[in-house]
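Table S7 (text form). Paired inputs.
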Amino acid sequence: MVWLKQYEVVGRKTPVGDEESQLMSMKIFAPNKVVAKSRYWYNIRKMKKVKKTTGDIISVKEVPEKKSASIKNFGVWVKYKSRSDTVNMYKEYRDVTMAGAVEQFYMEMSGRHRARWSAITILKVQRIASADCKRPKTLQMLDDKIKFPLPHRVPTPSSKQYRTTFKARRPNTICSVESTL
């Protein structure tokens, strides 16, 4: 179950008098609309110097995922505050949805880098072609002849009449080339 959704939040600086202010759009991954609005104001305050008190949100809408049946490669560009410095980073993930790839990213950042969700700013998430993948973790999955061997197979009886609680001999569950010859 994907707990993150992608939202497009559009806002602007509150116009004073007859002047018109430009619309500022941002795509944000958040669990709900309230968190999406909060992250929008956090990022806009840093980039455009517009606070929540001096701005308006025009619309918040969830961006639906298209074609979530096949697995795709996603590149994630981020900036996060570590304990000592601000770090720019690029990571690659394979998932069926963009939100799923971002979830994998957050889980990896919290585990591997001890980065908090609030310290991470996602700059861009983009679907990338297989030829453009760089990371070894992603490249190993792109082979057409990839196999996932099951070395520890537990034999099950073909029907109920052959099922017993105790066997006369312990089953050999390790399937290797030497044992089959």
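Next pair, protein 2 of 2.
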Amino acid sequence: MDILFLVGGLLLILLGANGLTDGAASVAKRFRIPSIVIGLTIVAFGTSAPELTVSISSALKGSADIAIGNVVGSNIFNTLMIVGCTALFAPIAITRNTLKREIPLCILSSFALLICANDIFLDGSRENILSITDGLLLLCFFAIFLSYTFAIAKRDGEMKETSQSEEEEIRQLPMWKSALYILGGLAGLIVGGNFFVEGASGIARSLGVSESVIGLTLVAGGTSLPELATSIVAALKKNPEIAIGNVIGSNLFNIFFVLGCSASITPLHLTGITNFDLWVLVGSSLLLWLFGVFFGKRTITRMEGSILILCYVAYTAVLIYSL
């Protein structure tokens, strides 16, 4: 029964995210909002909606380890597994701006979470908690990130250089259908999120596995399916560089917005998420930056992709061995 809840909830989440994204993008296009803005906001929200739904549902139900493990595990999965798998299909070119701006921001977000989640070490507290203050701080970082992204896009002229083919990729639906997609998508996200958390918690209890391990592996992999699908399709269409933007945008969104919202609603107690997990998160971003700067001349090669995948396999093996 728990497996049915898990699979059914995930399907509802993915369908809901897709419907919500299509409906919102159609409304945005109707009001002549540039595609770059739609991509930076609505589409980014759509691919991270599963993580947002699962984390908020988990936080409200008192399953903080699933809420935090979902974000930490998703970001590790994104950086190591998704980039690694995409590089196996086609080497990923990284622009100079991405190496100078976006990837360092990703590293910064990981360090910010590491600092916020170390109350015992830094403050001498009895336990590590992502407090409401921490959540609001992460949301402030998210607002700065959005403002920075729009400013860069406007300065570089990207707002005016959207091609006709990009515009045509967004379907303009009738208003009633857009509203139906948005409402149906939200309903799917909410119901699916509840089912998914119930299923994941039930599986953890029945197997005697901690919710943190389930959140870091099963839940993280499941909620990262939109990013994985987007990146693999981009590689098959000979646009592997999209994978980097997809992964970095999702990672920043997950930490700053998803965890920011979750912690702002209710404090998140870290019981099963350790500094080992958080340092792997930081290390994965640093490894991606190092590969881009030093080894492949701003390209993630197939060999480097294989190393990223092996790192994820090793991390998962450590989690399983430590049970």
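Residues 2-321 form a domain with the A middle domain of Talin 1 fold (CATH 1.20.1420.30).
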